[in-house]
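FW: tagging you since you asked about this chain on Friday. Here's the raw sequence from the shared folder, copied in full. Didn't touch anything.
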Amino acid sequence: MVHEELPRDYENKLISKLHVVIRGSIAILAILMTLVIVWGVLDVGYILIMKLLSPPFLLLSVGDIFQLFGTFMIVLIAVEIFINIRLYLGTNVIPIQLVVATALMAIARKVIVLDIEKVAYTDVLAIAAVVLALGITHWLIVRDH
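HL: got it, structure written out here
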């Protein structure tokens, strides 16, 4: 574990021990996120099976498909968060591009499952502004690499 902001050999012993606790806490978060991902995959499978087995058999409505898309996206976002945690623990570089990509995926999930008839136009404009800002940010980061 390389992260320079949390060195184990810090001059102050208390701070050094606190760094170890924080690193351990981040490792626990990674373990918990792995459990969330596995649980999410099982949940996607369960939802799909239940939807296919309920009348009309082996058919999915548009609403069912959107619900499944939303659940898939949540699991994929959890995977991205896990990768962020892993990179945070394993490098001394903040993975800005990955963080922005994760935010883009989260807002994309919101757009995919958004019921346009039930939200105010101001909410749609706010989501559009976030997508635009994140898209420009991602483009600027990728362009520089």
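FW: The chain has a mean pLDDT of 86.
HL: agreed, and The chain is about 75% helix and 0% strand.
FW: great, closing this out.
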